[in-house]
Amino acid sequence: MAIDKTIAALADPTRRELLHRLASNPCRAGDLARGFAISRPAVCKHTRILGRAGLIRAKKIGRERIYELAPGGRDAVGLLIKKLEEVGAFWDTALGAFKRYLEEKQ
Amino acid sequence: MAIDKTIAALADPTRRELLHRLASNPCRAGDLARGFAISRPAVCKHTRILGRAGLIRAKKIGRERIYELAPGGRDAVGLLIKKLEEVGAFWDTALGAFKRYLEEKQ
DNA sequence: CAAATATGTAACCGATCGGTTACAAAATTC
DNA sequence: GAATTTTGTAACCGATCGGTTACATATTTG
Predict the structure, then answer these.
(1) Buried-most residue among A2, B46, B65, B72 (CB within 10 A)?
(2) pLDDT below 70 — which residues of chain A?
């Protein structure tokens, strides 16, 4: 699963809220959409993006579709956090970097 | 600084690479662009997005513009990691959730 | 079988993204 | 002062996003 897609998927507050709801319970598509200001098809698009990012999955039961957190999602988020911790470390490396830069300039 | 913008800014590999370069040294705009396959104006657009996300800043020296990691960026990334750890916790909550869901259904 | 329900998809819209080339502006250099 | 360098911005492009309404499809239900 491409990490970029996972990050992008988590950049949207609606999608984070969808994950939040699925955390407590798997949910039928309709129930999942209920309570959002946006339309059901709009929510459907968000679930598609979350699915492509490997964060949720759906199983079809009769005419209903039950969404739930994807098993691999935990790993995806974990990997992401690790990646971001690397990014965070940049700021440590950067301590005194501007000073160094000015020194090198002469 | 809106957390959504920070996440979105980090979703792009080119922008992460830009941060990576700025980690070791502040950098003139031109040097920062050097080595990328894309054009200099394209890089300029990325720096604008990173700037809006509070991750980098520039100081003008003569006709040059020196980019560096923004001081507040560390906090922004830290906050982001915290947020993502919350998201990661969803998967713990979700343990056995589908089982619960089926039970409730009857 | 007909009606109702649950859901996804298609077509469209305006905004933004990531890229390009061409240009404008400010500071150096000769 | 003219030429060069450094940089950002404007105008454009195709793709994607986040939203809409309208529709197609499959499954229950009466």
Answers:
(1) B46
(2) 95-106
